[in-house]
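Q: What would this chain look like folded?
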Amino acid sequence: MKFDISDKTLILGYSGSGKTTLLEYLIDYYFVHFPHIVIIDSVYRFSKLKDRFYSGIVECKKPSKNKICIHVRGEEEYEKVIYALNRYPYPVFLIVDEIDQYISPYSLPFEFGIYSEQGRNWNQGGIFTARRLGAVHKSIFSNSHYLILFKIINKMDLQYLNSVLDFDIDELMSDLGEHEFYFVDLHLSNIEGKYVLKGNRLLKIK
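A: My prediction, written as structure tokens:
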């Protein structure tokens, strides 16, 4: 797997499938090397990063450190953060666990709409997790370059993925073991590989 700072990636999977564990691994081994990253932390899952990351409110000015972890409560605070990132003078990689807590599937906040649909023009990428595709605004999925697909069981989510991807999702799901996932290039509609995270090792199964 590889990620560019301007790429957007969506991680899907039911609760307990391994989404957050994988996200923590990617932060430590992939994204920490990006020049500027911001983590939106809803329930202090990433509190262990406090020693390495600046914790505070994003401002339009250059922060004291280039790695920021923010605890955000609700859509209003989230939109204020995105407002600041849209005006930040450097490309920022945005990391949001459980993005459906901040963005309704039925309406896209103005500032996040700019980030989601135009951010690539100034190298604003990001990675987002969600338990259900149906809980995610369609703009997040349609503007993602990659999909990391853990086990999903919701029938409507499976039907939608079957309708937009060129492979049988039901068959893929039946072949997934515990904490295994597929890495999908949505632009090419191609499965790049099947992986599992064991400890601090990311293994490609096939």
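The longest helix spans residues 74-86.
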